[in-house]
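Appendix B. One record, verbatim.
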Amino acid sequence: MSEEMNPTPITEEPSSMADYEQELEASFKKLEDGDIITGTVIAVDEEEVTLDLRYYTEGIIKVSDYSREPGFMVKEEVQIGDEVSATVIGRDNRRGCILLSKVEANDVIAWDKLRQLKEDKTVLDVIVKGIVNAGVIAYVEGIRGFIPASKLSSNYVEDLNEYLNQEIQVQVFDVVEEDNRLILSAREILREKEAVERKARISNVEVGLVTEGTVESLQPYGAFVSLGNGLSGLVHISQISEKRIKHPSAVLAVGDTVKVKVIAVKDGKLSLSMKALQDVAAEEIVVETYDMPKAEEATTTLGSLFANLKL
């Protein structure tokens, strides 16, 4: 017969018990209350989450046992295919399933993860869930975290309510499991971003630029002047006036509008000068008002002419 009349049969490799060893071990393992197991989400509804435990039965997590987070929306936060770790808290004999609690598992494993997040300086996206005295509340790994008002922004926060239900980026600032304390902070992230943006803006500033600014602070060594757009620079005390002064307050006050010249850009910092503009103005006045010698004085040497010219 031809090969067309006798096609070669496709043979399947026989399965061995070893192929199912992991599944078999899981199915025979006896689960005890308090055990933490991991399963895959296979169903989600308004009341519970169902997990495939690779066991003889499924695991059920009631929404109240899934998260303590206020306003938690299970159908938005939990997706089919998610891997979830939960603690065995009992059995539902009527349905023949295992009852689990993600909240209890979090109390055991979340703190280790939070400490790792702190060590790695991981940036986290959180939603502000509540406003309390001197700060706001957000949740990470199911644990209630406090963000002090001083760590919400790089600037002073006047109205905390503006942050309610807003998504912000934070890092774990402090973790103390014994006191059930989790402190979060957004300030370091914001300051780092501002530093990068400021450095980019400063890189576009050219030495010699003359502009106006506002005195924002006075220090014994000089005055910091805001140039707008997040830029500021230092006018060293030696660059404020031609006269020698003991303190910038002898000439300047916070809030004054001053004209400055950029005299240096180094290491992401601007060095400014008011004195340089005074020197230029003085030079212009001398050049414009200098009287040329009369006819009878035309024999004045070039050297003596320059000797009388003050620059």
